[in-house]
## 1
Amino acid sequence: QVQLKESGGGLVQAGGSLRVSCIASGLTISRAAMGWFRQAPGREREFVACISINSRTTYYADSVKDRFSISRDNANNAVALQMNNLKPDDTAVYYCAAHVTINFSYASKTPSNYEYWGQGTQVTVSS
């Protein structure tokens, strides 16, 4: 059974930083493109960042570019999202997702391409 478990969310003031992490079990993430998505109350789930198996391909939402950084540690089956200069608009539940692929350079911004999802971790940014 595949499980993705997020951690590291919390409450931070605007301008602060947080690092959210995701640990996979039941799946070797060296076989999966990984992504982070978020959903704020009353809004649809939206793409944040994604990374290919070989880390050579990364994409970011325009709203987080130059503030957020996605990384992965295949040896430890983990992916992380470093979030700097946080803004109140970044407040949301952050979800980790995995898409099994044989293309080491593939990364996807599309939620429907991902087969596995975590339960999410809450990030709240106060003004």
## 2
Amino acid sequence: QLPLVESGGGSVQPGESLRLSCAASGFTLENYAVSWFRQAPGKEREGVSCISRRGINRNYADSVKGRFTISRDNAQNTVYLRMNSLKPEDMANYSCAAVVAGLFRPCELSPREVRYRGQGTQVTVSS
């Protein structure tokens, strides 16, 4: 069983919304910060958003600020990424990662110590 599994991707039209889920199994996700990444064909992977262990600190890439919201439900061992007002340039494979971090440490969009990484879910935005 994979430690992190993303779901919720799909094909939408510009302006629509999706909610991605990052579900952990076999370990307690609460013990890690979580980052979301995306990678489009021919482009490097970029950090989209992250959330600290307690959920107090949340960061977003400039390209998604005001449109994406990250949250976590530690009871469900899951982190979510709500994506509103999707644009064609948001189209990519989205993946999540569990990041080693101190309890009160702010999260990082480019984390250094990834412990687990999911395989991703595809988001397509096209009219």
